[in-house]
Specification:
The chain is α+β, with helices and mostly antiparallel strands.
C-alpha cells in the first residue's frame, strides 16, 4: 500500500508454452496475491479485446490494479505495457 492510502499492485499475464510441448497455458501471477486478482479482473473486463489482438499466439504483458485496502476488492485494472508477442 502506498503512503498516500491508495492500494495498488502489479501482475503478470502470459500465454506460455507447456513444458511437454503440447500447446500453451495461461499464466497469471502478482507481486502479491491481489496482483493476481488484478489480472483476473483485467481478463473479466478485457478478454474479447485481448483475444482479438493475440488469438491463440503466445504473449506476455504487465497489469496494474487498484484495490480497496479494507475489502481487498479490485476496483480497476489496466495493461501497463504493450503486448509482447513471443515468436516461435
Amino acid at each position: 500500500m502506498d503512503e498516500d492510502g491508495s492500494a495498488a499492485d502489479y501482475g503478470y499475464l502470459a500465454r506460455l508454452p507447456r513444458l511437454d510441448g503440447r500447446g500453451t497455458f495461461l499464466y497469471a501471477a502478482g507481486i502479491h496475491a491481489i496482483g493476481a486478482n488484478g489480472v483476473v479482473h483485467y481478463l473479466e473486463n478485457n478478454l474479447p479485446e485481448l483475444y482479438r489482438e493475440v488469438r491463440t499466439r503466445r504473449f506476455s504483458t504487465l497489469i496494474s490494479c487498484r484495490y480497496d485496502p479494507k475489502t481487498l476488492e479490485v476496483l480497476e485494472s489496466k495493461r501497463v505495457t504493450p503486448l509482447y508477442r513471443h515468436e516461435g
